[in-house]
Write a structure and sequence with these properties.
The complex is a heterodimer of chains A (393) and B (322).
Chain A (H helix, E strand, L loop, with lengths): L1 H15 L2 H7 L9 E2 L17 H26 L14 H9 L5 E3 L6 H5 L4 H9 L32 H14 L6 E6 L6 H13 L3 E7 L2 E2 L2 E2 H4 L16 E5 L3 H16 L5 E6 L18 H8 L3 H12 L4 H23 L19 H16 L6
Parallel strand pairs in A: 1-7, 2-3, 3-4, 4-8, 7-8
Antiparallel strand pairs in A: 5-6
Helix pairs in contact in A: 3-4, 3-12, 3-13, 4-10, 6-13, 7-8
Chain B lengths: L2 H15 L3 E5 L15 H5 L4 E3 L4 H14 L2 E5 L10 H7 L3 H4 L9 E6 L14 H5 L5 E3 L4 H13 L4 E6 L23 E4 L4 E5 L3 H14 L4 E5 L2 E3 L3 H11 L2 E8 L4 H13 L8 E5 L9 H4 L3 H12 L3
Parallel strand pairs in B: 1-2, 1-3, 3-4, 4-6, 5-6, 8-9, 8-11, 11-12
Antiparallel strand pairs in B: 5-10, 7-9
Classes of the chains: A alpha/beta (393), B alpha/beta (322).
Chain lengths: 393, 322
């Protein structure tokens, strides 16, 4: 009977439009996806605010302020040649901070280039964090990765490679494992708009839909993948609508509105915890600075566009909101800024003083135990170093 | 038991012994795999542990990495090793480097099982031997058994290993290779070669399906008065270099046999290692009997493969040189 009804309704639909009309209309059959925003760029509450307490609101703000100051400092160090590379989060602080605040500490975060701040929110030591940028002996990654590729199991932030999008199927696998073990843990994968062109993105969303896993996909649409604008990355009207093809629920969120992000992620996490599967969130934001310390955005984009987005700055907007709400005074804000700046300077100073990792550590962690050929190569290097003073290497 | 039954037995025993072990891949669940390697696992352990995935090798391997990081012991099946390349980035850029790049914080102990090699009239895309790509990638272990006993014992070792293991199964002999295999669990250690035949004149080194061709060639050589020693590497990485070098020091002559194309094939590495360690023991130029540097052919696969007659020629040639 159900079959007959379906056949009937399909005949009915068929009669409405010709094939050519149907095909021509198809890209527009999806409704416009509204933007979820609760604080407007002037700092006014414009939507239904998620439930938060003052301590949480201020913790988010403090973390956003910290990463803004740290990024500024690190870009200066890069220009001075004291660090090799840096990828700043400037202008995008609300997305990772709103996300991590809405997650449980036991949830796994699979970051991309601009979400290291999630570790700081979870209490990871700032000096150790800065040691990653120097790649020195204080770095938990032992100087094995370029700067801004932070990770630590102690805060459930997973190691990221640089090959775009690879972390997305891995997050699905972690979510499959959490579901299998019946843990109340979700896996949250970050990605940029550029990553949505990678095969791994589509594979991962497809797997997530099929297996109905407790995963969150957080696409920071910052409008630029190095020099490629989103319009040249995809012909879809939005990134969010890509989720439709994989049977995943989705939303488009103002990624510069930390409370909008917080609320959307909270809801998505609850869906996942209830066993309702993964959610895709497009977080609209903007990369105020360069892709990294290695490019000059003036070559490929119009500075006027940057000015438009500077007026939507997530930190300034949230500050106005908190002051308006009475959570924070301008004086307290200034005091915190000064204090955080000193904290950053101190952490950088202490981190920079650390020695490099020892040469023999080159051969550790390739395997759980060193096989004979790495043992031999380690001996070879150490003998060479012992017989050659440093400057002759 | 044949080789495919031995693989199935290893999977079944490990899944029964350790609930962290899951299998995933295309058609591995209800159907039991296109070669039947996972037959019965779906019925015994359910769809949560015998997971039919969408058709995407990068997804299978990527998801397995996430599972392994989380604490499971996934065994991913790639239906043919020729199909592994969509997942190559996940293996080479992610799986192999995870422990290293995270300073030992994260690791993904898992196994990628995949049928390898020619001899089934499979053309380019069901016949290749891509082991060298993975041998060239630090962080992976690479195994290729030649018989049912080793297949079972090595697979159990691979599943229990703390590092990712590429487990290449020679599909040409999935059913042809039969042997006594205990029904209970046992291990064959990774990194240990087997000397299948001792001899004093020539050392022949191979792995996987070509071990059988090499063995036939050694038998024929014996009839011509040449006493060949046959080494089955079993694990390509970590390599049992001692067994190789000791043998070549004894015989002074080496012939390496593999299906993969010659240029940058593993034979080149084995010969170099020997030159570095036993140069003055060599009495003749080392020989490589391998697939040719062409794509794997459909019709002319017997001409392409390093089968017994070609191996025999090399053994006899080298035995009478120097």
């Amino acid at each position: 009977m159900a079959k007959a009804a379906a056949a009937k309704s399909s005949t009915k639909r068929k009669s409405k439009r010709s094939a050519s009309e149907r095909i021509a209309q198809s890209p527009f059959d999806l409704p416009e996806i509204p933007l979820h925003q609760v604080i407007d760029p002037s700092g006014k509450a414009v939507g239904v605010l998620p439930k938060t307490d003052r301590a949480l609101r201020l913790r988010m703000y403090r973390t956003m302020q910290l990463i803004r100051l740290l990024d500024e400092r690190m870009m200066i160090l890069q220009r001075q040649g004291r660090i090799g590379f840096y990828g700043a989060c400037t202008g995008q602080e609300a997305a990772p901070v709103g996300t991590v605040a809405a997650l449980e500490d036991r949830d796994w975060i699979f970051p991309a280039l601009r979400e290291g701040v999630t570790m700081l929110y979870r209490g990871f030591d700032l000096e150790t964090y800065v040691c990653q940028v120097f790649g020195n002996s204080g770095d938990v990654l032992k100087g094995r990765q370029m700067p801004s590729h932070y990770a630590s199991k102690s805060v459930n932030v997973v190691s990221w490679g640089s090959c775009i999008g690879t972390q997305i199927p891995q997050a699905v696998g972690a979510a499959m494992a959490a579901k299998y073990k019946k843990d109340d843990v979700v896996a949250a994968a970050f990605m940029g708009d550029g990553a949505t062109s990678e095969g791994d993105f589509h594979t991962a969303l497809n797997f997530a839909g099929v297996f109905q896993v407790p995963a969150l996909f957080l696409c920071q649409n910052n409008h630029w993948s190095i020099s490629i604008p989103t319009a040249k990355q995809t012909a879809s009207r939005t990134i969010a609508e890509k989720a439709v093809a994989y049977g995943l629920p989705y939303a488009r969120v103002d990624g510069n509105d930390v409370l909008a992000v917080y609320g959307a992620v909270k809801e998505a996490r609850e869906r996942a915890a209830r066993g309702e599967g993964a959610t895709f969130l497009e977080l609209l934001t903007y990369r105020i600075g360069a892709h990294s310390s290695s490019d000059d955005p003036r070559v490929y984009r119009d500075e006027a566009e940057v000015e438009v987005w500077k007026a939507r700055d997530p930190l300034a907007r949230y500050r106005k909101f908190l002051i308006e709400e009475g959570d924070l005074s301008a004086k307290e804000d200034e005091r915190q800024r000064t204090e955080l700046n000193e904290t950053v300077l101190e952490a950088v100073k202490r981190a920079e003083a650390r020695p490099l990792p020892p040469a023999e550590s080159l051969f550790d962690d390739v395997y759980a135990e060193r096989p004979w050929h790495l043992e031999a190569q380690r001996t070879e290097l150490l003998e060479h170093l012992a017989s050659h003073p440093k400057k002759e290497r | 038991m044949n080789l495919i039954e031995a693989v199935n037995s290893a999977l079944s025993l490990e899944m029964a012994a350790d609930d962290r072990v899951v299998v995933l891949g295309e058609d591995v669940g209800k159907f039991g795999g296109v070669f039947r390697a996972t037959k019965g696992l779906y019925e015994a352990f359910g769809p949560e542990r015998s997971i039919d995935t969408p058709l995407a090798e990068g997804g299978i391997i990527g998801a397995a990495i996430g599972m392994a990081m989380y604490g499971l012991r996934p065994v991913a099946e790639i239906q043919f090793s020729d199909f592994i390349f969509p997942g190559f980035d996940q293996i080479v850029s992610e799986l192999a480097k995870l422990r290293y790049r995270s300073g030992g914080d994260y690791a993904a102990p898992m196994v990628i099982r995949t049928p390898v090699g020619g001899g089934i009239r499979g053309g380019h895309y069901h016949s290749q031997s891509p082991e060298t790509y993975f041998l060239h990638t630090p962080g992976l272990k690479v195994v290729c058994p030649s018989n049912p006993y080793d297949a079972k014992g090595l697979l159990i070792s691979a599943i229990r290993d703390e590092d990712p293991v590429m487990f290449f199964e020679p599909k040409r002999i999935y059913r042809a290779a039969r042997g006594e295999v205990p029904s209970e669990s046992y291990t064959v250690p990774l990194g240990k070669a087997a000397t299948l035949r001792t001899g004093k004149d020539v050392t022949v080194i191979s792995w996987g399906a070509m071990v059988h061709e090499a063995s036939l060639a050694c038998e024929s050589a014996a009839k011509e008065g040449v006493d060949a020693e046959l080494i089955d590497l079993r694990t390509l990485l970590p390599l049992d270099v001692e067994t190789l070098i000791e043998s070549v020091k004894k015989t002074g002559r080496m012939v390496v046999v593999h299906e993969a194309p010659r240029t940058c094939g593993f034979a080149g590495e084995l010969i170099t290692l020997t030159l570095e360690r036993a140069f003055y023991h060599l009495q003749a130029q080392p020989r490589r009997v391998t697939g040719f540097d062409t794509p794997f052919p459909y019709t002319l696969e017997d001409e392409y493969l390093p089968l017994a007659p070609r191996i025999l020629s090399s053994i006899l040639e080298i035995a009478h040189e120097g």
